């Protein structure tokens, strides 16, 4: 997988296949989310649900596969072999942008799953169409505990694979631990969200706008990272 991602790309002379495909898909996913958001604004709930479901599922599968193969970008944090610019630009510009990008990607994936589940919970079927239904929306305590224990089990299984199958670096293990910690944090914040936004329909609309902002920022940081790596400061062979 790493060898395939490292092959020459088609967008920039110094680009790689993995970087080019990743950037193009970031553009595609952002465009699909904007279309889905526009459908929701027009009250086309079913079309919105279908497009969001397909888009978010595709995005989650791709990003998990890509960043898993790249060890969540930690290889870029371990040294500047892939960056051809000055050390000062690497430390003060590139690393902060890359770190922000990886953080936003993690948050975006978590929000994708959360918004899908929350959307189905907050919607009802009326005349065959999905419509956001007002009213209090809460998670039962038993369900809440089950989700947390499931997350813990998935983290433990993933750590076993990282350690004994992939022999991944310590930074990769830390990165995955932070991802699961972020997911658990979002699950934990659900109780606070329920108190702040008890109405399910209003909660979905407000968090939906926030999620769109996150995806826009992912595209911006992805663009900056690509430009720094493959256009402005490519490695000179």
Can you describe this structure?
The chain has a domain of 163 residues: Four Helix Bundle (Hemerythrin (Met), subunit A) (Up-down Bundle), CATH 1.20.120. A two-stranded antiparallel sheet has the order 1-2. It has eight helices and two strands, in the order αααααββααα. Helix 2 packs antiparallel against helix 3, helix 3 packs antiparallel against helix 5 and helix 5 packs across helix 7. With 237 residues, the protein is mainly alpha-helical. A hairpin with a 2-residue loop joins strand 1 and strand 2. The mean pLDDT is 82.
Concise synopsis of the structure shown:
This protein has helices at residues 2-5, 17-41, 45-69, 74-77, 87-122, 141-164, 170-196, 200-232; strands at 123-126, 129-132. With 237 residues, it is mainly alpha-helical.
- Please name the CATH topology of the domain at 2-6 and 14-137 and 199-232: Four Helix Bundle (Hemerythrin (Met), subunit A)
How many individual β-strands?
2
Which class best fits the helix and strand makeup? mainly alpha
Rg over alpha carbons: 20 Å
The number of helical runs is 8
SSE string, helices as H and strands as E = HHHHHEEHHH
Distance between the termini: 23 Å
CATH class of the domain at 2-6 and 14-137 and 199-232, please? Mainly Alpha
Layout of helices and strands:
Layout: H1 2-5, H2 17-41, H3 45-69, H4 74-77, H5 87-122, E1 123-126, E2 129-132, H6 141-164, H7 170-196, H8 200-232
Antiparallel strand pairs: 1-2
Helix pairs in contact: 2-3, 2-8, 3-5, 5-7, 5-8, 6-7
């Amino acid at each position: 997988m790493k060898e395939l991602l490292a092959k020459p790309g088609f967008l920039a002379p110094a680009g790689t296949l993995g970087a080019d495909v990743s950037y193009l898909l970031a553009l595609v996913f952002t465009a699909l989310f904007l279309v889905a958001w526009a459908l929701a604004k027009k009250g086309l709930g079913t079309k919105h649900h279908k497009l969001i479901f397909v888009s978010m599922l595709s995005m989650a599968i791709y990003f998990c596969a890509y960043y898993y193969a790249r060890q969540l970008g930690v290889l870029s944090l371990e040294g500047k072999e892939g960056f051809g610019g000055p050390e000062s630009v690497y430390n003060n510009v590139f690393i902060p942008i890359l770190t922000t990008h990886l953080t936003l990607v993690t948050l975006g994936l978590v929000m994708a799953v959360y918004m899908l589940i929350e959307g189905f919970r907050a919607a009802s079927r009326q005349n065959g169409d999905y419509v956001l239904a007002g009213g209090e929306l809460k998670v039962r305590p038993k369900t809440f505990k089950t989700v947390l224990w499931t997350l813990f089990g998935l983290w433990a299984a993933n750590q076993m694979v990282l350690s004994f199958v992939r022999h991944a670096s310590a930074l990769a293990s830390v990165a995955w631990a932070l991802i699961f910690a972020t997911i658990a944090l979002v699950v934990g914040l659900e109780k606070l969200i329920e108190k702040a936004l008890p109405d399910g329909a209003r909660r979905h609309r407000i968090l939906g706008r926030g999620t769109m902002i996150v995806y826009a920022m992912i595209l911006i940081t992805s663009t900056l990272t690509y430009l720094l790596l493959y256009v402005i400061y490519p490695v000179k062979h």
